[in-house]
Specification:
The complex is a heterodimer of chains A (68) and B (565). Chain A has 68 residues and is an alpha+beta fold. Chain A has a single domain, classed as Alpha-Beta Plaits, CATH 3.30.70. Chain A contains three helices and four strands, in the order E-H-E-E-H-E-H. A two-stranded antiparallel sheet of chain A has the order 1-4. Chain A is globular, with a radius of gyration of 12 Å. Chain A starts with a strand and ends with a helix. Chain B has 565 residues and is of the alpha+beta class. Among the domains of chain B are: 106 residues, Succinate dehydrogenase/fumarate reductase flavoprotein, catalytic domain (Flavocytochrome C3, Chain A, domain 1), CATH 3.90.700; 101 residues, Up-down Bundle (Methane Monooxygenase Hydroxylase, Chain G, domain 1). In chain B, strands 1, 2, 6, 7, 8, 9 and 18 form a seven-stranded mixed beta sheet that branches. In chain B, strands 17-10-19-20 form a four-stranded antiparallel beta sheet, with helices on one face. A four-stranded antiparallel beta sheet of chain B has the order 12-15-14-13. In chain B, strand 8 and strand 9 form a beta hairpin. Classes of the chains: A alpha+beta (68), B alpha+beta (565). Chains A and B meet through helix 2 and helix 3 of A and helix 10 of B.
Chain lengths: 68, 565
């Protein structure tokens, strides 16, 4: 499972989109929010969470990884 | 109307083009800028967080001249033993030993010191090391700090850009590359006096034990772009037969094993037996390929599941371990916590990871053959990091990346800028965008999945002549469907090119593996028809693209003496 972005905390800076190594997070210019567009391609590297300036991102592992 | 190459896309000019902004690429950029060259780094992501150490790294191997095991000679002697048949000691001396002192200083200078806050180095032993060469450090921000330094020195970047092909002049010299923006799709034609390829190893090539192709130990965006591009222009590649596998927490192919075994974690089977001593005298600190073999065999022979046991660690060691684990893989502590595991009380289940194309040891890698100046066998083309045959792990990618930057800049300043023919650019552009117009009868995901499943069966941890030839036949059969893959947008176009690169690397791997008629590095190259290691194969299998298809030859290596400093 991909990163979970708390849109209440998100300031719309776009860093998560810019820094994601897998092009998983796309900033939606129209809605002004980051979208986890390709969740299956997440590497769980934590770059988005590390660089989010307001701590809006948590990493949630899904059952396909926790219980395989 | 323009008649030149500008009619096809945006033309950019630079002295040094670096493809891949990971650890090696960033170090190369810093060095090339320091020499005074104009530098452009192209990457599919950002130079701040792309590549294998995107979210951090916790170890850097070094000798520090404190004892007899802690010298250049001892390090190279060990390298020649553990990576015999793949490591070239003369080149190691150039890409690592001569650059080590400067690298340690550079890391201090950019604000990512290898030292603890006390000023001391925290050193541990793992993976068959003769002494504690492994320096533990906080490398969580190593990438952004390197990127900051590269930008400060004037390096330009082309981010969210997938480089697909190299440009050559009439004599076969590399004079730049082409690529496209993975969001907007615009085409770039980059003219460079020298080009450094630094795009890492190849992942997503073998079936993943969790069934999740992006759940990989190394970065799943690294798919053999450099190896493929270098091969296409006729460069020699070496060590390509190696299938690297490691030991990871069950369910999450995360780095961190060296932290666990380095701190004294014990690998145990279902009965609680510390079985690694059966396989290697160094037990839990055995070389990686032995750990993999031990874990695989315990499970195959019915003594699994297999765990890592850290319950005996002192409170101080446990505290250090918990901090370091998150340095190497930022999200590993979250995974352990979300599994409901407390390392002080519980065992952590482990497994053998997916296979990947990468080097056999922590020293040398697998890919573009480089010389003591990091030059490939093709003029104008250099290699850095894990996509070369001699640079692996954070320490050699740091030192060797820097050397590549210095050398590529030095040569660039003596070369003139050349322009490719209009036809070359036109033809490459047509090929790059062809998947946008394809039928879509086959999906990129199913194509890649089929390839991975097939390769693991016929060319994975157990191979023989018949299975490898079968793999090659099936790759040829599968390849006929490649042109049916449709990319619906530019992100998918990037993935489709990645699939093409993985296929190309798989072919090189099978050919190289056929030529190495022996078993070496345990399961990393296990030929069931030649189960023993044969000293006649103390050297590299070299792969090269010719008019008659893929050819291989043998490059004997000398381990009788340690090269002079």
């Amino acid at each position: 499972m991909p990163p979970v972005i708390d849109l209440d905390k998100c300031t719309g800076c776009g860093t998560c989109d810019a820094h994601c190594p897998l092009d998983v997070i796309h900033y939606n210019e129209k809605k002004n929010i980051p979208v986890v567009k390709y969740p299956d391609e997440c590497w769980h590297c934590g770059s988005c969470r590390l660089d989010c300036p307001v701590g809006a991102i948590t990493i949630k592992f899904g059952p396909e990884m926790l219980y395989v | 109307m323009g008649k030149g190459i500008e009619q096809f896309g945006e033309v950019l000019k630079t002295d040094v083009l670096i493809v891949g902004g990971g650890l090696a690429g960033n170090n190369a950029a810093i060095a090339a800028c320091e020499v005074g060259a104009k530098v452009l780094i192209a990457d599919k992501s950002s130079i701040e967080r792309c590549g294998a150490i995107a979210g951090g790294v916790d170890h850097f191997m070094a000798y520090l001249n404190t004892d007899t095991w802690d010298t250049r000679e001892a390090y190279l002697e060990w390298a020649g033993r553990i990576a015999r048949g793949a490591v070239n000691l003369k080149i190691q001396n150039a890409v690592f030993c001569r650059e080590l002192e400067a690298a340690i200083e550079r890391m201090d200078r950019i604000g990512c010191s290898l030292r603890q806050p006390s000023g001391e180095f925290y050193r541990t032993t793992s993976f068959g090391l003769p002494g504690p060469y492994m320096i533990n450090f906080n490398g969580k921000n190593l990438k952004p700090l390197l990127a900051k330094e590269a930008r400060r020195l004037g390096a330009m970047t082309l981010e969210k850009c997938s480089i697909t092909n190299l440009l050559t002049n009439g004599n076969g010299k590399v004079i730049g590359a082409v690529g496209f923006n993975i969001r907007k799709g615009n085409f770039y034609i980059i003219l460079a006096k020298t080009t450094i390829l630094a795009t890492g190893n190849t992942n997503r090539i073998f079936q993943n034990p969790t069934g999740l192709p992006f759940n990989t130990w190394q970065c799943p965006a690294n798919t053999g772009a450099a190896q493929t591009m270098a091969f296409e222009v006729g460069a020699h590649l070496a060590n390509m037969e190696i299938v690297r596998i490691t030991v990871v927490p069950r369910g999450f192919s995360a780095a961190g094993l060296n932290a666990l075994t380095g701190m004294g974690g014990k690998i145990v089977n279902a009965k609680g037996e510390e079985f690694m001593f059966k396989y290697h005298p160094m037990g839990n600190k055995a070389p990686r390929y032995k750990l993999v073999e031990g874990v695989m065999r315990e499970i195959e022979e019915g003594r699994g599941p297999v765990y890592i046991d850290c319950r005996h660690l002192s409170e101080g060691d446990m505290k250090h371990l918990k901090t370091t684990l998150g340095y190497d893989k930022d999200t590993l502590p979250d995974f352990i916590e979300q599994k409901g595991i407390d390392l002080r009380k519980d065992l952590l289940e482990i497994m053998a990871s997916e296979g990947m194309q990468a080097g056999p040891s922590e020293i040398c890698s697998s890919g573009i053959m480089i010389d003591e100046e990091t030059k490939s066998t093709v003029e104008g083309l250099f290699g850095a990091g894990d996509c070369t045959d001699q640079m692996r792990c954070s320490h050699v990618c740091t030192t060797g990346g820097y050397l590549a930057g210095k050398m590529a800049a030095k040569y660039a300043l003596t070369f003139t800028q050349e322009e490719p023919s209009v036809n070359q650019v036109k033809e490459l552009k047509r090929k790059v965008y062809a998947p946008m117009r394809a039928s879509g009868k086959v999906s990129q995901k199913s194509f890649e999945d089929t390839m991975r499943r097939m390769l693991w069966v016929y060319a994975g941890a157990s191979r023989n002549e018949y299975s490898l030839n079968t793999a090659l036949e099936k790759l040829d059969g599968l390849e006929k469907y490649f042109n049916e893959i449709k990319a619906g947008n530019y992100h998918e176009l990037m993935r489709t090119h990645e699939t093409r690169q993985i296929l190309s690397v798989a072919k090189m791997m099978c050919h190289a593996s056929l030529a190495r008629k022996e078993t070496r590095f345990g399961v990393f190259h296990r030929r069931t028809d030649y189960p023993e290691t044969n000293p006649e194969f103390d050297g590299q299998i070299v792969v090269v693209n010719t008019d008659q298809g893929i050819k291989t030859f043998f490059n004997k290596l000398d381990y009788s003496t340690i090269p002079e400093p």
